[in-house]
Amino acid sequence: MRKQNDSNLYDFISSASNEGFRYVNYSTGYVIVSERWRELFGVPKEKENDEKEFIKYIHPDYRKKFYDKMERILAKQENSYEIEYVLNDGRWITHAGTNKYNSDGVLVEKFSFFRDITSDKEKQKELEYMAYFDADTGVYNKNYFLKRLDKAIYKSQHGGYNRIQTMYMDIDNFSVINDTIGLSLGDELLILFAKRILKYASHTTKVGRFSNDEFVIALYDAESDKEVFDIYDDLMEELKTPFILSDGKKVNVTLSVGISVYPAGGVTAIDLIKCADIAMYNVKRNGKNSVCVFEESMLSRFMKNANMEQKLKDAVDNLDFVLHYQPQFDSEKGIIRGAEALIRWKISEDELISPGEFIPMAEKNGCIVNIGEWVVEQALDDFCNWKNNYGYKGVISINFSAVQLMNSDFYEMITEKVKERDIKASDVEIEITESVLIEDPDAVIMQLGKLKDKGFRISLDDFGTGYSSLSYLKNMPIDTLKIDKSFVDSMLNDDSTGIITDAVIKMVKKLGYETIAEGVETDEQYEYLKKMNCDNIQGFLLGRPMSSEAFINLIKGEI
Ligand code: C2E
Ligand code: CA
Ligand code: CA
């Protein structure tokens, strides 16, 4: 049927590309199809000339679209067109055609090229998915969540939505859970968690993931002020049922949740979420497993903290600190037994910030290690000065927190600095609070033992404030025990504390440890402690923390 020269041309075209090719000459009735076209559509040979036949292979959902488009093209006598459709078997085809018309506007020839674009479509879908969704959990990713929320805010500003409420959720102690069950089960837990919160998703309620274990829900069109709390309550109920992991383990989780409401909690998506996050952080600070609504006052506190963190880092670079020393007195003889070094942050020429305000932050961000090194150097230098130039005979006590003590360089650091200055280790007392034992008591006890073997004195600070139990005391490599101010405060007014203090001192002495009572403020307290044979007294009554110069005057007064 077809002319030889045409055939060569079409064979050339069809073999030159990987596309299916179909040619129709409406005036002669010629139809030419390439091998690839046959493969793509699978139309039986005897029917391949029939245009209606091949259209049957187009999925019904797309067939009408195809007809409409062809009709429009013919009506406008357009020369080229491109259309995408799905075949009955689900494959995607892109179809590009060129039409030729005669002078009367009648279609005479049609060249069509067909290509299977299924894998391109899949890739595109995947990319779209990646652009919108969190790959692990299937909830919206952060970017898309924020984009949608901004749109909702816009709509709400133009009267479209009622109330926008957001809820920031953080799984409590997730890192601990992860350490316990392992990373892959941890991921599984997150997927199961996401599934549970996805049940709240709807046309106007969206769920997103902001980081590993942080999820967010936004209500675009809450019906009442309490709708977000209804979700919270419902979720709390849900979480009473443990998650069951693939290895059969049951895991219970609790959440810290912060809530922010538009517009009080921000007028952009980012601000709303930040405020909910700040409220969540507030819950964390107050013991987790609860909910809190963002308030303006939190922001100023948060800003102050963020501000302070940077300032603290600068202070570490510039060493804007001073040490004050508080004397400790032998309760019998009344002479100086030691000096406790207490750090202050010199935030300006005449303003000092107390350690309680910045040490926790320094512990969290790791600054404490550098700060501690400076404290050791300064305290040892002052100690050398007192000893060599003023005949000081007492010890120097230095405070260390768990982070410092368990730093891998701690032992090296302190032994080096003592050696450099030719100081006896037994003149240096390492003060640690019993809270250092919480994380890993065995490792701490080993570290303390090593330091004690080297000759350092070890002092257990704040005894009686919580973790203490007399039974483990006997296994502790310590020399000194400091009885906390809270005991001292109440022992005179409260019989049971008096009895306990008495018993503690007796027992501690039996174990062979030296005792120091902290925070002694009155003569009565002093007398009482002395009567109970407490070895040493430290407190405002006998001396407040003071500069090194003031301490030198104190030493001079003794001689
Ligand atoms: P701490 O080791 O229990 O130190 C005793 C705290 O009680 C000091 O507060 C001291 O000024 C205060 N104090 C002493 N006697 C009395 C008294 O009679 N009445 C009252 N009300 N208070 C008294 P400061 O200097 O604010 O230190 C607070 C805490 O900061 C210290 O508690 C210690 O845990 C920590 N700290 C201080 N310096 C350092 C340091 O260089 N490194 C580390 N890691 N922590 C430090
Ligand atoms: Ca102390
Ligand atoms: Ca203390």
Key terms for this structure?
single chain; 559 residues; alpha/beta; Beta-Lactamase; TIM Barrel; eight-stranded mixed β-barrel; five-stranded antiparallel beta sheet; elongated; binds ligand C2E
Furnish the topology, listing elements before pairings.
Layout: H1 4-16, E1 20-25, E2 31-33, H2 35-41, H3 51-55, H4 60-76, E3 80-86, E4 92-101, E5 107-116, H5 118-132, H6 142-157, E6 163-171, H7 174-181, H8 183-198, E7 205-211, E8 214-222, H9 227-238, E9 243-244, E10 250-251, E11 255-261, H10 269-285, E12 290-293, H11 296-318, E13 321-330, E14 336-348, E15 351-353, H12 355-365, H13 368-390, E16 395-399, H14 402-405, H15 410-420, E17 428-433, H16 441-453, E18 457-463, H17 470-473, E19 480-483, H18 485-490, H19 495-510, E20 514-517, H20 523-531, E21 536-538, H21 548-558
Helix pairs in contact: 7-8, 13-15
This protein binds ligand C2E and calcium ion (2 copies).
Structure description:
With 559 residues, the chain is an alpha/beta fold. The chain folds into three domains: 2-122, Beta-Lactamase (2-Layer Sandwich); 133-294, Reverse transcriptase/Diguanylate cyclase domain (Alpha-Beta Plaits, 2-Layer Sandwich), CATH 3.30.70.270; 318-558, EAL domain (TIM Barrel), CATH 3.20.20.450. The protein has an eight-stranded mixed barrel, surrounded by five helices. Strands 2-1-5-4-3 form a five-stranded antiparallel sheet, sandwiched between helices. Strands 7-8-6-11-12 form a five-stranded mixed sheet, sandwiched between helices. The longest helix is centred in the middle third of the chain and has 23 residues, at 296-318. The protein starts with a helix and ends with a helix. The mean pLDDT is 90. The structure holds ligand C2E and calcium ion (2 copies).
